[in-house]
Amino acid sequence: MKLSWLILVVILIAVGIVSMLVGVTQLSLLQVVDTLFHGGDYDFVVNQYRFPRLLLAIGVGAGLGVSGALVQGVIRNPLASPDLIGVSAGAGFAATLLLTIYPDAPIWYLPLAAIFGGVSVGLALVIIAQAVKLPPARMALTGIAISAFLASGIDFLLVVHPIEINTAMIWLTGSLWGRGWEQLPYIWLGLAILLPIALWYAWRLDIIGLGDESAIALGVQLEKVQIAAILSAVMLASLSVSIAGTISFVGLLAPHLARMLFGHNHKALAIGSALIGGLLVLIADAIARGISPPIELPAGVLTSVIGAPYFIFLLKRHKGW
To answer: Where are the transmembrane segments (predicted)?
Structure first.
């Protein structure tokens, strides 16, 4: 277990170092270190562009990873994740609406709009599930239907407002292009507040995994824990989406990979999902910048290339869900 933690942290640091070197301007490690501490000719590239982007990639990935772990813990469905249950689509729709109707909005409007959209979809999903007595394992399918509906709404906004389509499309495909120090406080403040909440409810989610009746018999306030965990997951996913757009499948992949390494204990799972989610987004962003400079691919495209086949594998593996 300890070796797995150490290896994961070392890989994250190594990928972070590599991400500082690649891009239109190829730099050596010595140049990067010197610029970080003393400035110089590459001050903008290193200190104003790549370093904040590195921190944002880790923060966004961590937010999506923890969100996915919480959603899977509450719904008890291995196919559940923020993007598959519609939360990311809700945040994306609200943010796209803001970008197209009010393109000059202050930067702090975007996280608020994304949180509002994500929370609205989360509440709608809970209401629908309670109204039709939907089992937790089937909520993922309802979320996919909501995502499809909101995706059509996003397409409508882009058609009606073609002038703002470029900004919206870059954001919707999932990219950290143009992001910097201004966005950094939002995601890391969100993690500082919501990750301890996830860890606080971790043992309760472990008990919920035994079944609702067992959890209630052991004194867990089931509804309270589920609402708190889902709201935390929704806000983490919404904050991540507001900064980097809809980076797909990180919330699905990170908890599964963390579960392979650290087991089903939700405290270890939350931290492991944060590290692996950060690593996935960091790798995707580094490849996006370094594969064919000066052309930059959206990081969300690269995560989808990995995540979509894995999702198909999960569908085949869990036919009974």
So the answer is: 54-75, 84-102, 108-128, 140-163, 183-203, 269-291, 297-315
Determine the Cα angle at 299 with ends 15 and 26, to 5°. Answer: 50
Q: What one-character-per-residue DSSP string does 43-105 give?
A: HIIIIIIIHHHHHHHHHHHHHHHHHHHHHHHHH--TT--TTTTTHHHHHHHHHHHHHHH-TT-
Measured on CA atoms in the order 169, 172, 174, 176, is the torsion positive or negative? positive
pLDDT at 180 over 90: no
Nearest to 242 by CA among 55, 46, 63: 63
Question: H-helix or E-strand containing 1?
Answer: none
Domain ranges of the chain: 79-174+183-239, 247-314
pTM of the model: 0.90
The answer to whether the beta carbons of residues 267 and 203 sit under 8 Å apart is yes
d(CA 139, CA 146): 11
Q: Pick the closest to residue 275 from 80, 15, 61 (CA basis).
A: 61
Is residue 235 packed enough to be buried (19+ CB in 10 Å), middle (13-18) or exposed (0-12)?
A: buried
Could you tell me which residues come within 8 angstroms of residue 45 by beta carbon, excluding any fewer than 6 positions away?
Answer: 23, 25, 27, 35
Token pair in block for residue 63: 């937010």
**Within a 10 A sphere around the Cβ of 143, how many other Cβ atoms?**
31
pLDDT(321) > 80: no
Tell me how far CA of residue 28 lies from CA of 72, 176, 296, in angstroms. 41, 22, 20
Q: What is the pLDDT of residue 171?
A: 66
The structure tokens listed for 224 are 């309270």
Q: Which CATH superfamily is domain 79-174+183-239 in?
A: ABC transporter involved in vitamin B12 uptake, BtuC (1.10.3470.10)
